[in-house]
Design goal:
about 25% strand; 3-stranded antiparallel β-sheet; Rossmann fold
Length: about 230
Amino acid sequence: MSENIIEISGVKKKFPGVEALKGIDLNIPAGMITGIVGPNGSGKSTLLKIISGLIVKDSGQIKINRKNKYQHLMQDIAFLPEINHLYKWMTISEMIRFHEEQYSDFSPKKAEELLNFMNLKLDQKINNLSKGMVARLKLVLVLSRSAAVIILDEPLAGIDPASRERILETLIGEFDSDNQSIILATHEIIEAERYLDHVIFIENGKLLLSANADDLRAEKGKSIRELIGEVFE
């Protein structure tokens, strides 16, 4: 892996009536868990979707694993969206098979191991799962891939504390820092902070700060949560 898994320069994106990203210049380090924080509407999800190739930037450049062509990105990135994108009529077993057919790097064996840890059963129908169970299943599907970059958009949003803790435990337990990098956008910074190696602050479509989490805490003498409170509230 290169020193930076993702290199972003001058990325801009406009939607009707909204300038979502205003020229983002950013390097995301390889082999780390990077947290992206910012208020609602700051541009976090837009940035993650552009990195993942789900929406097209207006201008600027993005390199992922030293590649800058979007046709190569799907093999490099596993993306977990904030919305529930799963087919409700499927069982978990059918969803596992669907992902196995869709992604060449998907491991059904790893998926079944993670399902056991997440207390999920293959014969359960997705329509009958609670919000917390759906969140755990979404993570299983992403972590069962061997993509170089795992991108998680608000994986802890709106779910119970027990599920949040299990998701974070699984994330850390499965993280292969020699071969993977994780980018995590979350509002649940109290639970997530201790797992973050690097933090990025974004507000109003602009990059405010990108720094090593330990260095930032040592320099400021405050937790990331306290710094977020100062910057955004």
